[in-house]
Write a structure and sequence with these properties.
Helix content is 59%, strand content 3%. By secondary structure, the chain is mainly α. It has two domains: 57 residues, no CATH class; 188 residues, Orthogonal Bundle (hpI Integrase, Chain A), CATH 1.10.443.10. The chain has a three-stranded antiparallel sheet, with no helix packed on it. Helix 5 crosses helix 9.
């Protein structure tokens, strides 16, 4: 690199060649890579004037941009189960939180212990304004029981662990004490091990992004569309109407009912719970019927006993009458 800079390079020509190599790449890729090149030359003290950049644009040297043919896909619950099997505890806590809360990864990584309320039902977390996108969109979001359990398990050991390959650790108030690159790495690693590391042939991007977990939440939660957008932090939906519903607890109640929709392991649990409840109700009904039958049986026994006593008395009366008749006949004969 030093040799390149010392040989008076044709900076503008090299930039044009670099941009030509990006022809056909998605717009975001072109923008990102172009910005990186600008920053690189600035850091190296190489002046590329605004006029030079304008000339590159005017003369058509900027690559032809295309929209990415494959947008991030949302994984299914079956896929998520398999992915979670290959995730360690911290990655599992992060993934379960993201899919059940709809929060952005940037917001999630800045959450501290005091933001969480694990004892509420459903569990909730307060996303402060200063950690939201653009500093707006302060809100309360909810997350699943399985995410709560995974996060609490992670917090029990978090401060005792050290970061691999560094002298750092995970101690401190942040719950997810790593950066976005590490968050993506953990997700990508689990996806690769689970067999879901597919890449789009045109864009060479992963088909299943960490961001696709927000898409999973948006399409699966099943709440009113305005509430979904508000929970996801879209500021235009965080209006007075939403705040009123939040204060009255209606959103929490709605989320609680919809929680199985964004729970990876909770669907079967919910079905099992419903089946168990149904069996319990049937059992209670059977117990009630048994008691009724027992009561009827007791009454029948009492009636049978009374009938037996009546028959005994009738028999005794019959014998008495017969004896009197015989005595009367003897008296008549005499």
């Amino acid at each position: 690199m030093e040799k390149y800079l010392q040989n008076n390079p044709d900076t503008e020509g090299d930039i044009r060649k670099f941009l030509a190599a990006l022809d056909g790449k998605p717009s975001k890729t072109v923008t990102c890579y172009t910005q990186v090149v600008k920053v690189f030359f600035q850091d190296q003290g190489v002046k590329v004037s605004d006029e030079a950049w304008n000339k590159i644009r005017r003369r058509g040297y900027m690559p032809k941009r295309v929209r990415a043919e494959t947008r991030d896909k949302k994984p299914t619950k079956i896929m998520l189960k398999k992915i979670l099997n290959y995730a360690d505890l911290k990655a599992r806590a992060q993934i379960l939180f993201l899919i059940s809360s709809g929060a952005r990864i940037g917001e999630t990584l800045q959450l501290v212990k005091d933001d969480f309320d694990f004892n509420s039902d459903p569990p909730r977390v307060h996303i402060r304004a200063k950690i939201t996108k653009g500093g707006v969109g302060e809100r309360t979001v909810f997350f699943s029981y399985e995410a709560r359990d995974a996060i609490q398990d992670w917090l029990k050991i978090k401060d005792t662990l050290t970061k691999r390959g560094t002298n750092g650790d995970f101690s401190g108030p942040r719950v997810f004490a790593w950066n976005s690159a590490s968050a993506r790495f953990m997700w990508n690693l689990a996806c690769d091990k689970a067999g879901y590391g597919d890449r789009d042939k045109r864009t060479e991007r992963r088909v299943y992004h960490l961001h696709s977990l927000r898409k999973f939440f948006r399409t699966k939660i099943g709440l009113d569309l305005d509430i979904i957008h508000a929970l996801m932090g879209h500021t235009e939906y965080l209006d007075a109407s939403y705040l009123r519903l939040e204060e009255e607890g209606e959103i929490a109640t709605a989320y609680l009912e919809a929680m199985p929709n964004v729970s990876v392991y909770g669907v079967e649990d919910q079905e099992l719970k419903q089946e168990t409840e149904s069996l319990r109700e049937e059992n209670e009904e059977l117990k009630s019927r048994v008691k009724q039958l027992e009561s009827q049986t007791d009454k029948i026994k009492e009636m049978e006993m009374e009938n037996f006593e009546t028959k005994k008395e009738m028999h005794q009366l019959s014998l008495t009458v017969k004896s009197l008749v015989e005595k009367l006949e003897k008296l008549t004969e005499t």
